[in-house]
């Protein structure tokens, strides 16, 4: 009989290529996932995001990846969780302010995941298969397909929780036109009555089991367009990119097997004064691999200014210098967040002093004016 692809062999190949677990499922639509995406959309909990929300039907029907697709080989790759308590640095104003970067971007995790998936695709292609790699992409809901492939359960925090590895994983798939037999025991919910992620989420974004309100999720707000919502600026603390709280606090992750030491190629934290001192080109060179709204460096400055307001030292002259620079930025988004940071650091004189007159110039959406109004600052427009 002809040799056929085998799940055990796929797992072994995956392991050699840096993947931690591999499962297989069919290409039938995942209707529960479609319903979940549509419900979030209908109730506005998706906060205008596109991703899988753009086309829920496509994102939950792997057979649409290409005509003739028959199986989805789904893989997980672990990454290193953060090693310190976020609050350790968040409340210190005596050190140069640091912005914390979520663990999954501290190394090139998606590059490493892709390498593993390429090894699986190569194995499948040796059988004459057509295969296509899909990961972190609008075409497929990764967690839903992984759950159906038996790689974990979908937790209260919406993360895919693997029984051995917890949630510090990235997920990707190889869709193929081969039929691959898969047998596994469906995993039951392992969260039980635990509510830690819901109770401790800094903004209350996870009140209902398995439902994330993206309007409140700091990870999303850091990536969303427009002003950073005022009501969540203090809660942002020192998070500069992503938020790991619902994973850090999860007891399943306490018991998870230690990760293999992925080489950390990027800094876990960013000096926000250095960031705010950088040119557009430097910012895109250093952080261009992040998801930045409209690819506009002003959004990096917006986020850094909120972190600066939360964690900067009011006595540091460098903080004053950088705030003054940002208050005279050409970009109203930067100026309005600089007003917030200065006022939060009780630097009223920076806002109402010499720079005041230029603050309101070129404020097409009125965001600088709105920020000043929030602080009860009125400008003497005659002095402009
Ligand atoms: C949009 C998106 C976000 C958004 C919204 C997240 C969300 N919870 O919806 C934002 C920007 C907030 C975000 C944040 C993060 N994300 Co994200 N994100 C995505 C993306 C692109 C789509 C997710 C999605 O479809 N959301 C829609 C909602 C409705 O989905 P959901 O809440 O997960 O619900 C699913 C299940 O409930 C399932 N379902 C419901 N009922 C049933 C029943 C059955 C039987 C089954 C099988 C399934 C099922 O269907 C739903 C749709 O998949 C995926 C990549 C991808 N293409 O899938 C990555 C992804 C989910 N993100 C990931 C990561 C790592 C993160 C962060 C940890 C990053 C960070 N540190 O900041 C945070 C975690 C926050 C959180 N708790 O989700 C990983 C998750 C890995 C894992 N182990 O779970 C993914 C899979 C990327 C990847 N390929 O590795 N993310």
Can you describe this structure?
39% of the residues lie in helices and 11% in strands. With 384 residues, the protein is an alpha+beta fold. It folds into two domains: 7-92 and 104-176, no CATH class; 209-383, no CATH class. The model has no long low-confidence stretch (mean pLDDT 92). Cobalamin is lined by residues 30, 32-33, 36-37, 40, 49, 51-52, 102, 104, 135-137, 140-144, 147-148, 154, 157-160, 167, 169-172, 210, 212, 214, 217, 219-220, 223, 242-244, 246-247. Residues 30, 32-33, 36-37, 40, 49, 51-52, 102, 104, 135-137, 140-144, 147-148, 154, 157-160, 167, 169-172, 210, 212, 214, 217, 219-220, 223, 242-244, 246-247 line the site of cobalamin (B12).
Structure at a glance:
This protein has helices at residues 7-16, 31-42, 51-54, 56-59, 86-90, 109-125, 142-148, 196-200, 218-221, 233-236, 245-248, 251-254, 272-276, 280-287, 297-311, 317-327, 332-344, 348-352, 356-359, 367-374; strands spanning 21-26, 71-78, 98-101, 131-135, 153-154, 160-161, 169-176, 239-241, 269-271. With 384 residues, it is of the alpha+beta class.
Derived structural class: alpha+beta
The side-by-side strand order for the widest beta sheet comes to 1-2-7-4
C-alpha geometry: elongated
Helix percent band: 25-40%
Q: What is the terminal-to-terminal distance?
A: 86 Å
Query: How many distinct beta strands?
Result: 9
Low-confidence stretches: none
Q: How much of the residues is beta strand, in percent?
A: 5-15%
Biggest sheet features: 4 strands, antiparallel
Compute the gyration radius: what is it? 23 Å
**On the 0-100 scale, what is the average pLDDT?**
92
User: What oligomeric state do these chains adopt?
Assistant: single chain
Q: Count of helical segments?
A: 20
Secondary-structure element pattern, one letter each: HEHHHEHEHEHEEEHHHEHHEHHHHHHHH
Q: Bound compounds, please?
A: cobalamin
